[in-house]
Amino acid sequence: MFLWRTPALVLLLTLQIVNCFVADPEVKCDFVCDSEGCSDEQDCGYSGPAFACDFEEAGMCGWTDESLKAYSWERRQRGGGELPVSGPSSDYTTGTATGWFMGVSAVTTESLSPAVLISPKMKQSSQTCRLRLRYFLWDSGHSGLGSIPLWASILHQDSQDAVVWRPEATSVHGWREATIFLGRIPTSFQIRLHSQRSEGLRGDVAVDQLEFLDCALPSPLQECPPELQCLRGSCVERQQLCDGSDDCGDGTDEKNCEGYRICDFEDGECDWDLRSFSSLLWVRTNQENISLTDPLQGPGRDHSNNSVKGHFLYVTVPEGGLKRDWAAFQSPRLEPTNSSHPCKMVMYTHQFGPRSGGLTVLVAGRQITPVWERGGALGDVWVKAEVDIVTNSTFQILIMAAIRDFAYGGIAVDSIVLSPECRNSTGNSSLEGFPKPPKNPDCAKAEDEAKCGDFSYTEGSSGWTDSSIGSQGWVLYENAASEEENLYVAEAPGQQLTEAQTRTPLLGPSGPACSLSFDFALTGISDQIGELSVRVIDSLLGMRPKLWEFSGKTGAEEGAWEHVDVPVGFRKDRFQLAFEARALKLDAFSKIKVTNVSFVSCNANYFPHSKTGLSCNFEDGLCGWYQDNSDDFDWALLNGMDHTIGIGTSLTVDMWSPALRGAFGRLVSFTHLQGPSDYCLSFFYKLYGPNTGVLNVKLAAHGNEWHEAHCPVPHQLTNFRLMFEAVRSGFDGRVAIDDVTFLEGPCTMPRKCSFEGQQCGYSSSGPGHWLYRRGLSATGSGPKTDHTLETELGFYMMANTGANILPASRTTVLTSPVRQGNAKTVCVSFWYHMGGKNPGSLKLYMKPVEGERVSIFSDNLDQGDVWRHGNGNITSDLEDWQLEFEAVGAGGDNTHIAVDDISLSDYPCENQGSKCTLERGMCSWSNTQNVKVDKLDWERTSREAESHYLTPPEDHSLGTERGHFLFLSSSNRTAANENAQLLSPHLPPTKGTCLKFWVYKQQSSDSQLKVWRLSEGALNQLLGVSDHGGPWKRFDINITSAEEYQIVFEGIKGIKGVVALDDIEYTVGVNCAKEVTDSLTRPKHDDAGGIAASVIVTLLLIGTIIAFLFFYLRTRQRDQAGTAPASSSLDRAGFSNESYDRELTNDRVEVPSVQNHPMAAGFNNVSISARENEV
């Protein structure tokens, strides 16, 4: 009997165990963690004890799309690659391309059905419940956002839908923060996010990082006075009794309110009189009567019931237009009061949209006296107000609204409560005059400056207006006798648990030197008094990030003041400044105060004098530059990493910073006056990291080293400003600039020129022309892609060498700017492209400022539709010089010669066929910039220079921390499995070429390394390294190929560890057994210059032989230190190094098997003395 019952018993026990972990439906999604791990609060529109949703999980916290048509919500990522044409550049939560958010699909035709995203059902919420979210609104297609592209509503249990949030429909390419005030909802509900547009691109409306704050009903307390205790066991404050709000969550605090007159306007106007002297009238209405189809009309819901059916008093611009800009209603006549028994009035106001000009409460007795006011708009929220009235005559309470003539918005009043001391009177009172309506403060004109918040003016402090909606607010303290005045934080009647906020009137625009100067004090006995911050509210961009914040205390005594100057900077749109504060505890001993507030150097046309102008090394600030406050993030001064001395200051943007959001950070110069002169902007920069982003002006050089850049600025007909822009298209790296100079005159030759965005000062001369162009314009002859970006969008310089443009033997020359000479040997490196049958020849010369030019490089072969690498050495012996790229026509048809990526290095060129130790650069290896091929880059660095990423402890070449290597590091800032490809130059077909290299890969690293042979667009894997762990390890690979090819090192990023490369070597035509496998060729030397030199030598006097011999020996020593075979002085006139041609011709001769890399196509070591001419 026991045996057959066992399975049933096991099943019963299993069910009982499972039931222990199943959340009680009554407590699920009630904003309280009732079970271990907060499992009862999962997928409730939020998840876990943080009550937040970041959409990183596929379940979307229970949110679902219930759109009826094609326009809908979708969970999505930005993805890798360049900045998207629409939608956010990253999610908000992680700030990277791998983070998830909710965005809308594209819409091309107007739909009557909006996209709707709906939450799961939640239980009731408290009076303080609010939802903080980040939202994105961008009109990337320039088709218009529409009047209401995004809004939120509450779907009640009875299927009524009440609008609770309507953000300003302004287009901003960045995430913004908003708070949705949900308030008290006594039954289950859902939240819906709506979007409606007639046209728009994918992702241009998006939301992310939802956080539910203070939504749980108050928890029971052990100790609570009986009159303040709720039926649920929780406790309320005394001022929350009989105030028209259910603060207990069970209605207890609104019972036993005998003598109070509470009017929720559900059954009429009570005894409030809506008649007015003004033609603009208050009306009793509800949202159903105003509109259920236009979300912009009305407050969306009443206060008493939080529903569309609840009634309230409302005033807005009437259908016939605005004739009077104020409206008032009044109470019945009331008996006089005194200070010990004041008449207390509580009311709830909703001041939404630009039509809301402000609200004032006046006491009309023998005179009319304002006793309370609240200016402007406060958002989509019902705000509690308390007014104490003391007067010795019969009076009426007047509530007056100011309405502005704008597109939407209005003012509503609901739930007015009068205390028992507000007794009706049978007496008469007569009004002596009616006051002016409340004025909307604005500091646009000079006469308003005295009341704009600057304490240095007599009435300046009165310009600050308390805009708090919570339990703490700002109060202005004034002592006429001591002339002391300050703003301090005190208790306020608001219900929300938000910061106290006080704002200036509308200010600005402001200039770049503008700052807010003030003294502040956070004093008291406790170690932590609270927080104080400064914020800008931009008229276009809305609430901006905090400019400054302080947390803790300044001292124990009240006089413990500290001073601060907060940069406000250039603001092109009107704005308000706000002090925000939150005291942990308000009592007689704890104070938060602000005084001596002033605005310094804020005139929009004021630019401070900078001794160095726009030239700046950033050791003493930004000089003649300032941060653009309309962008997404700021540049930061970083100590310990500069170009000049290595330990100084540079200006950086850390793309890896988890606090960074948005796509753009701009640094703008002070205005420079127009003039006839040309200028040159030069600077040093770093683009470092596997996924860095972009620095505009567009630059290509990469790595953990400083690169020099030059930007010609032609003369301007109007005043102008310059701008550095960091584009956050990547999330794992650093952008830095240093040693900026701005000088009159042309730029010198830059060290690196990719031709992206500029010609770097290169100019064309001769019968033909070098054209500045890109692949998109290559409809006829010309490369279809550039070398830098490997795309049709990339730029290069090209000469059309067809017979109809450049006849045979005719030349066109591309000349660089002048470069200052020095004693060092300089390596000139570039990439070139020759296309078409008989394209002519490309020659590179070094032209001294005084003297004849010297040949460095030449090639005359059509070598296929590929970019090839060329280089050569120059020693100028302090003579200034230029580069000349000369294209010579050969009578071909539809032919061309192009150059790209010209660079100079302060050391001799390395032999391309020998080992590349990476100590002097990347030799002829390069990262591909083709985003269709990879997303990351191999980085050249050393352990000593690296402070952020994990690297090998030392390199292989030197075995020290100073030695260099290439590495690909793992980090959580970029997605796993993204790759980086390192390419060799094009190599000739081979029966055996040996590739040798060293790899470092930790045992714990899950990154991978693959080696490929790339030929004719196809990849053939040669090696895969995935499980190698430990120190540096050598790999040898024999490569065979019947076609021309490239070697590709592909790193694949994991989630931990590092993979690194060093000492890369390939021996063309020699296999790993050191056997010669290929017979390679080189062109004949061009001996014309050598013959001429020989004739001259035979005619020289015997006395010159010694000097010539000395010069010859010195030249040979230099050549032996370089990379080409040693050459005599006779060889300098047009000597071409070995080059590879797929079609062998009779004028080629065999060369020894161990040689320079054939694809160099003719590089010479060139050394000239000052004024030495070509012979």
From TrEMBL:
One of its GO terms (cellular component) is membrane. PROSITE patterns: LDLRA_1, LDLRA_2, MAM_2. Pfam families: Ldl_recept_a (PF00057), MAM (PF00629). It comes from the Eukaryota. The keyword Membrane applies. The chain crosses the membrane at residues 1091-1113. Residues 1-20 form the signal peptide. Disulfide bonds join C230-C248, C242-C257. Residues 51-217, 261-424, 441-604, 614-749, 751-911, 914-1074 form the MAM domain. Keywords: Disulfide bond, Membrane, Signal, Transmembrane, Transmembrane helix. This is Apical endosomal glycoprotein.
